[in-house]
Design a protein that fits this description.
alpha/beta; Rossmann fold; 2 domains; 6-stranded parallel sheet; 3-stranded antiparallel sheet; binds adenosine-5-diphosphoribose
Length: 270
């Protein structure tokens, strides 16, 4: 593992445009269960996964009922407010501050990268702390609507202040398209990068899982791999088995990413 940590640090220091791609695995050490790991939400409760696949259809069929349910039930991920970023999030935020990491594209909706200080952040599946218009994609803080009063006055769903269409959670549900702005910027980053650090994702959900494949297909003028793809994950993934990634540091992101950051700092001092 030490050799791979040194190698990852050298690759990062040499890179011109490094990206981080993250999934639920980077947040488990903050107390948020992942989905498909041994203790994952879907692993433990396949019914919940089936329900999650119907959420968007339920919203489209009856936005008012979607909101009634949403306001009467605790969020699937429990109360996120009390949870804090862990050393894995903080390491990525520091690599960005060192201008090594140019952007982080996360599937996570838990706001922990933002809390850790990551600025150049693309939230591919949205953010649980935000609302978004189902039509023009205008985004709102929940505080911009008095949801309790709207519910009492029978005025749900909240209407977009720009176009009047029903507003929903910013979270991208299964079957819902990735908001065009985030999708475009993510694809652009995958086409620009020369290093991808993929942390804590099983890489089985599309279209996010396409991003490493887009990067892998790029070759330099001498038809060599133009991008170094590194995985930091508790277990191998299809990216490992299909040789999309160059190497896997198998273990906890909360332990490995700070070690890589330490080695990067040493190389930077040399
Ligand atoms: N360190 C490293 N890897 C970890 C850790 C950890 N501390 N904890 C879990 N993992 C690994 C798991 O072994 C698994 O391979 O992280 C991966 C998490 O995979 P998933 O649970 O499938 O989460 P993710 O890849 O983010 O899921 C993608 O699926 O349900 C949808 O919208 C949801 O964004 C989510 C998407």
């Amino acid at each position: 593992m030490e050799e791979l940590i040194q190698r990852a640090a050298r690759d990062l220091v040499r890179s011109r445009h490094a990206l981080a791609l993250t999934g639920a695995g980077i947040s488990t050490e903050s107390g948020i269960p992942d989905f498909r790991g041994p203790g994952g939400i879907w692993t433990k409760n396949p019914e919940a996964e089936k329900k999650a696949y119907q959420a968007y259809a339920r919203f489209q069929a009856d936005p008012k009922q979607y909101w009634e349910e949403r306001l009467s039930q605790p969020s699937l991920l429990g109360s996120l407010e009390s949870l804090k970023p862990n050393p894995g999030h903080l390491a990525l935020a520091e690599l960005e501050k060192m201008n090594i990491l140019k952007c982080t594209i996360t599937q996570n909706i838990d706001n922990l990268h933002r809390q850790a200080g990551s600025q150049n952040l693309l939230e591919y599946h949205g953010n649980a702390f935000r609302l978004r218009c189902s039509s023009c994609h205008s985004r709102y803080d929940p505080g911009e609507y008095d949801l309790k009063r709207l519910r009492q006055e029978g005025k749900l769903p909240p209407a977009c202040k720009e176009c009047g269409a029903p507003v929903k959670s910013d979270v991208v549900h299964f079957g819902e398209g990735i908001p065009a702005d985030v999708a475009e910027q993510s694809l652009e980053q995958a086409s620009l990068c020369d290093l991808m650090l993929i942390c804590g994702t099983s890489a089985v959900v599309y279209p996010f899982a396409l991003l490493p494949r887009v990067a892998r297909e790029r070759q330099d003028a001498r038809r060599h791999r133009a991008v170094t793809i590194i995985e930091v994950n508790a277990e191998p993934t299809p990216l490992t088995f299909e040789n999309i990634s160059d190497y896997l540091l198998q273990g906890k992101t909360g332990e490995i990413l700070p070690r890589i950051l330490e080695e990067v700092k040493k190389l930077r001092r040399e």
